[in-house]
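Thread: quick sanity check before group meeting

JM: Hey all, I'm pulling together slides for Thursday and realized we never actually wrote out the predicted structure for the chain we discussed last week. Dropping the sequence here so it's in one place. If anyone has concerns about the input, flag it before I start.
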Amino acid sequence: MRIALGSDHAGFNLKSCIEKSLHGSSVITGDFGAKGPENPFDYPDAAFDVGSRVARKEYDLGILVCGTGIGMSIAANKIPGIRAALAYDEETGKLAREHNDANILTLGGRKTDCESGIRIVRAWLSAEFQGSRHSDRIRKISSFEERSPSTGNEPEGSPRLVTFDHPLIQHKIGIIRNKHTSVKVFRELVQEIAGLMVYETTRNLPLEPVTVETPITTTTVSSISGKKIAIVPILRAGLGMVDGMLQLIPNAKVGHIGIYRDPGTLEPHEYYCKLPGDIGERDIIIVDPMLATGGSAVAAIDLVKSKGGTKISLLSLIAAPEGVSRVQDKHPDVTIFTAALDSHLDDHGYIVPGLGDAGDRLFGTR
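JM (edit): ok, ran it. Output follows.
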């Protein structure tokens, strides 16, 4: 049996305890999420990573641990095909399998001690789904998932792909697809679209209350609570998106990654990398107008991770299914944001219908 284990910083110690208890058995484990209890790690990142792997059948089951287990359960259950159950004693662990066929168990690292956690896991693993009337209820859940609208045009099993359907974004995408659009207008629209997309991408930044004095009185307002952001364009086309993003987040630091694609093999080759020194402390947005084969994006993410980056998103105007699949296969923890998921790649590696070579159209080259 293959079990994926994941945690945030608050659940790290209990996860480690459970992992040790499974050693020596017939269980093969995978360890994801936080690497220690000291450095903050967001529970949704671990939940999406483990949940995606279980949904894709890379692992048979998953165990997720955060402070209470509640956040992990909420996040993991956003993934189609996942039935994550929070258990707080042996009985609820057992029933999670017998009645709900839970393929992920969530636990609270601050609510459950090591010995209790091990007993819950053993009760969960030793139980079997009872079927019968419970099968009918599970089928209702699966049927509802299949009928429910998604966040966009997502390939099956792609919980970390977000496509934007905002009318302004779609209108401007239509204009830059037109081959008769001038370099000046194309460049301006790419910046505008990037700004609109980053507006959506950063909607979950945490806020904190601060007191300010208005011309009338003092009042409490909201302020972004110390989040550090890095924008990392893939040269050269990614440069065309940076200014539009900086208009909304002017305090973001900007790194640069130079990668060119071999015209014969379509494989990426790095020639430059310069990132902020505190890249490991920042939320990182890698930007490239086109996600085609995914080779350059994967290479860029590899580089950022090798320099200490952990919280990474990829922002592209237009994506191909081939590129999305490649990035998600190599880096399932990275969320992809795009304005359009197109049909496919042609024999030359261009996105169809796409918009041609974004770099050439941005800079007037051929």
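AS: nice. The first strand starts at residue 2 and ends at 7. Residues 183-201 form the longest helix (19 residues).
JM: adding both to the slides.
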